[in-house]
Design goal:
The complex is a heterotrimer of chains A (about 400), B (about 230) and C (about 290). Chain A contains twelve helices and 13 strands. With about 400 residues, chain A is of the alpha+beta class. In chain A, the strands form two sheets. In chain A, strands 1, 3, 4, 5, 6, 7, 8, 9, 10, 12 and 13 form an eleven-stranded mixed beta sheet that branches. Chain B is an alpha/beta fold and about 230 residues long. In chain B, helix 4 crosses helix 5 and helix 5 runs parallel beside helix 6. Classes of the chains: A alpha+beta (about 400), B alpha/beta (about 230), C alpha+beta (about 290).
């Protein structure tokens, strides 16, 4: 009888105990699996968002995050200068602003406005209508709006949007409905040309950009583009996506990494404790049997293998069930965390990577080994004669 | 009369257990030879060292003094792995408390040790059926120990002990948990086992069982009292 | 558009202060004063009394000199606790003078927000609507009582994690109780054989379960209380903040005990009941 078969029969002696052990491992294992997903989920998801724009380098005036620090002055000349670098394929200046529009009930509602060029890659994705065009028909520059703004204000292509934050209110013509990669749930967002931005914010300084989006040439790559920019304009701050993510990993996203580490540690401890306790108690309850098996000629190795197999069945059974359970739990936890204000609606905290499955499997193997270690030592080192004698007396 | 091969030879064997209150000498200066085909019964008061002697003979434990040879090989020089192999293939054990695995059927309990010894599946099946028929449980092969009586469980244990065709079967108080009538049945079975050529050493309080043995030895205070081999009436 | 948030000055400081004149102003020169955050003081190795140059331009153009009058601890912001708080505070006219574009009309009289404290806070909604209607072109919003939404979300997240952990722990607890009941199987069988009723034995199991659950719950709360200091110390060190991350309050302790006690008792009762349902002789059989 193979150790696995023997272990299965041993566990079936106490089905309630075995089932509870598997359930406990499954639940805690699901939490552990989720923590693996959380540890890098934000980074992976944010990378997807950044890459979806089609730009792999970002340039700001200082090391502050875009929109949080001073703008790049002489944006047009800077854009032109950087565009001439052979490593760069495209440079697009972007401006950020916040305006208000009249909303229902006599209130005003804030609208985030992005100013960019008409020639772009992926600052937004066109859903309906047409994209921005230069010019201002009837004194109204083009504007693209997101679905939330369009729905709340009843906008469609051709609609007029009047900003309430200036006197007189500046008007724009909606050319299309778009999806912004970084729009938050419920956020009202609009995109205009740089000229349109000046129309929306007449007191804003001209020829500035909060951010320069840069696409590197495929043959050069983002790292070479960053080096070229830093060499040409050492006064500017250029970041590749990797560098942005590295910074976020150590700063803004670090809390969730640490939470995931702490919870993963606790979950691992629980799993080990549970399985070790179950196996140790099981061994202690059948010391006589173990001694008899040893007397019958079962080697220490065989006894150890039997216990390892029991551990593998408990941990393996629970660990396998933990994967679908963990995915379900992750959806729930993700939906909770994504309710945080000002988070891009496409950002996810829990992202499944093959690495997570591999780590989960590695943990299962390690857990089965460690959990079986103490009871296996207990069983293998059992003094056969003394145990038989003690069991006979008792 | 041809000289029979000695299965076990003990010369001046002693066993001392270190205890917190001081060492305990469970066996002292025991000399005994068990030859092939012997039927030996060892009796004595509780705590006299009977089971200790049985464990030494069965390579479960090693002596702290004297020499012990199993089939000519010194036991003290053997490592635990080697003694395990000997116990699996050359020795069969029958315990007072049966020690059948409760989650395995009678069939599986007997088959288990054969599987561990590496016997091929077909041979195992044949041998298991043969043994269970031999002990009179041919109709109960699929029953769990909890579904068997004490006597039936001990029969299964005897079948298990014989599974790998051992040179020696050791039984420690095999009728200790059985009534007299059932004990008699077990005694009959042991007679058959020995008559079919298996060497038997039994430790027992049961005088009726001990009387069945050809050699009856008495132990007291860790020493073996010499007693002539007694032929069965 | 005026770039009012003080944080925008951080890069200015970074660009200018590092290389700017740090010598004290000449005797008698009255320089405008600023306060710097503790983080900024440490990060840039500044000192109270030191004179620094600030500029709103990343290249340092138009820099003005200020004397550091003191250090302040920024109000911890849970939604931004991972960010370094490199900040400075100055008088509004100084800020306006520093950030205004030369020749920019109205720059010296332009702010990004006006905070209003009402006599009666319950009027805030009505006030905001009325002001918004009377002054088109400005946005009037009620200040939230702290940034509660982040707290609420994080709390929900932690609660979800707690629920999952509890479910796993309950399975663990049940397994242990089943083991415990099984170990007492023969004793339970003997008591039943002697004539004790199931109810009597269950009561004993309940009392034992209560004692174990109470001891475990209290131990758990004490352990949490003992380790909260370490957790807070770590995160405060890690993020250089004065925020409290873990606080075991009497209410939380009471809630934990209120959950743990019934769980422990129920687990013990359930395990014992499944045992006592069996026939007496089954309990005594090996």
């Amino acid at each position: 009888m193979s150790p696995l078969h023997f272990a299965g029969r041993s566990l079936s002696r106490q089905p309630a105990r075995a089932l509870l052990g598997v359930i406990g491992v499954a639940v805690v294992g699901a939490l552990l699996f989720d923590m693996l997903m959380l540890s890098r989920g934000l980074i992976v998801s944010f990378r997807d968002l950044l890459e979806s724009t089609g730009f792999d380098v970002r340039v700001t005036a200082t090391e502050a995050l875009p929109g949080m620090g001073p703008a790049v002055a002489e944006a047009a000349a800077t854009t032109e200068e950087l565009s001439r670098l052979p490593e760069l394929a495209m440079v697009v200046p972007v401006r950020f602003g916040a305006a208000t529009v009249a909303a229902r009930g006599g209130r005003t509602h804030e609208v985030a406005i992005i100013g960019s060029q008409t020639r772009r890659r992926g600052e937004w994705r066109l859903l309906e209508g047409a994209d921005l065009a230069d010019g201002a028909a009837g004194g109204r520059p083009d504007m693209v709006v997101n679905r939330t703004l369009a729905r709340e204000q009843g906008l469609a292509s051709g609609s007029i949007v009047r900003l309430a934050s200036t006197l007189p209110g500046r008007e724009f013509r909606v050319s299309g409905i778009v999806e912004f990669p970084f729009e938050a749930t419920g956020e009202w967002m609009a995109g205009v040309t740089l000229r349109g931005f000046t129309h929306a914010f007449p007191t804003a300084r001209r020829d500035e950009a909060d951010l320069l989006l840069v696409a590197s040439r495929p043959e050069a790559g983002p790292d070479a583009a960053v080096v070229a920019i830093r060499r040409a304009r050492p006064d500017l701050h250029a970041f590749s996506i990797d560098e942005v993510l590295e910074r976020l990993r150590h700063a803004e996203f670090s809390y969730f990494r640490q939470v995931s580490f702490v919870l993963a540690t606790i979950a691992s401890f629980f799993t080990l404790l549970l399985v070790t306790t179950l196996l140790t108690v099981s061994v202690n309850q059948r010391l006589g049997e173990v001694a008899a098996l040893r007397a019958l000629g079962f080697s220490r190795r065989r006894i150890t293998l039997d216990l390892l197999a029991e551990s593998a069945l408990l941990v393996g059974g629970g660990g396998i069930a933990a994967v679908p359970l963990g995915l379900l739990l992750a959806r729930g936890l993700d939906s909770i965390l994504r309710q945080m204000p000002d988070l891009p609606s496409r950002l996810h905290f829990f992202v499944l990577e093959p690495r997570d499955l591999a780590l989960h499997l590695a943990f299962l193997v390690l857990a089965a080994l460690i959990a079986a270690a103490y009871p296996a030592i207990l069983a293998a080192r059992l003094p056969i004669a003394a145990t038989l004698r003690r069991e006979s007396i008792s | 009369m041809s000289a029979k091969a000695a299965i076990v030879e003990a010369r001046g064997v002693g066993k001392v257990y270190p205890m917190p209150a001081g060492p305990v000498e469970a066996l002292r200066d025991v000399s005994l030879t068990v030859e092939a085909g012997d039927y030996v019964a060892i009796s004595g008061p509780s705590g006299c060292g009977k089971s200790t002697l049985l464990h030494l003979l069965g390579c479960v434990d090693t002596p702290t003094a004297g020499s012990l040879l199993f089939e000519g090989r010194p036991v003290r020089a053997m490592g635990e792995e080697e003694r395990s192999r000997i116990r699996l293939r050359r020795i069969g054990f029958v315990f007072q408390r049966f020690y059948l695995l409760p989650m395995l059927t009678a069939w599986e309990n007997v088959e288990l040790v054969q599987s561990e010894a590496g016997m091929p599946a077909a041979e195992r099946r044949a041998r298991t059926r043969e043994l269970l028929e031999y002990v009179g449980l041919g109709q109960r092969v699929g029953h769990l120990p909890s579904q068997l009586s004490g006597g039936e469980m001990q029969r299964v244990a005897i079948a298990r002990a014989l599974a790998n065709r051992p040179g020696l079967v050791l039984a420690d108080e095999p009728t200790g948990e059985l009534d007299d009538e059932t004990g008699e049945q077990i005694g009959d079975l042991f007679d058959r086992v020995n008559a079919d050529g298996t060497t038997l050493v039994i430790v027992t309080h049961n005088l009726a069982l001990a009387a069945r043995a050809r050699r009856r030895l008495a132990m007291r205070s860790g020493r073996l009292a010499a007693s002539p081999a007694m032929a069965r009436p | 558009m005026v770039r009012a948030p003080l944080l925008l000055l951080l890069p200015c400081l970074a660009a200018a202060a590092a290389g700017a004149a740090r010598a004290a102003g000449p005797e008698g020169e009255r320089l405008p004063e600023i306060l710097v955050s503790r983080g900024l003081l440490r990060e840039r190795r500044l000192a109270v009394g030191q004179v620094v140059a600030l500029s709103a331009d990343p290249r340092g153009a138009g820099a003005r000199r200020f004397r550091i009058a003191g250090v302040y601890e920024p109000t911890p912001d849970p939604s931004r606790f991972t960010a370094k708080r490199l900040e400075a505070r100055m008088h509004l006219p100084d800020l306006l003078a520093l950030t205004a574009e030369p020749g920019e009309a109205g720059a010296a009289d332009s702010v990004s927000a006006i905070n209003i404290a009402l006599q009666d806070a319950s009027d805030a909604g009505a006030f905001a609507r009325e002001l918004g209607a009377r002054a088109p072109g400005i946005s009037v919003v009620r200040a939230a009582a702290g940034d509660d939404q982040h707290f609420v979300i994080i709390e929900r997240f932690h609660l979800a994690i707690s629920v999952v952990t509890m479910i796993g722990s309950t399975a663990f607890l049940l397994a242990l109780m089943v083991i415990r009941a099984d170990e007492r199987r023969e004793v339970a069988g003997l008591l039943r054989l002697l004539g004790l009723r199931r109810r009597r034995i269950l009561l004993q199991a309940l009392l034992e379960g209560l004692c174990i659950a109470a001891a475990g719950a209290v131990f758990g709360v004490l352990f949490a209380a003992a380790t909260q200091g370490a957790v807070n110390a770590f995160f405060r060190w890690r993020y250089d903040t004065t925020l409290v991350f873990v606080r075991v309050t009497p209410a939380i302790a009471a809630r934990c005990i209120a959950v743990a006690l019934p769980l422990g008792v129920m687990a013990g009762l359930l395990a014992s009941w499944t045992l006592l349902r069996r026939p007496v002789l089954d309990l005594l059989r090996r």
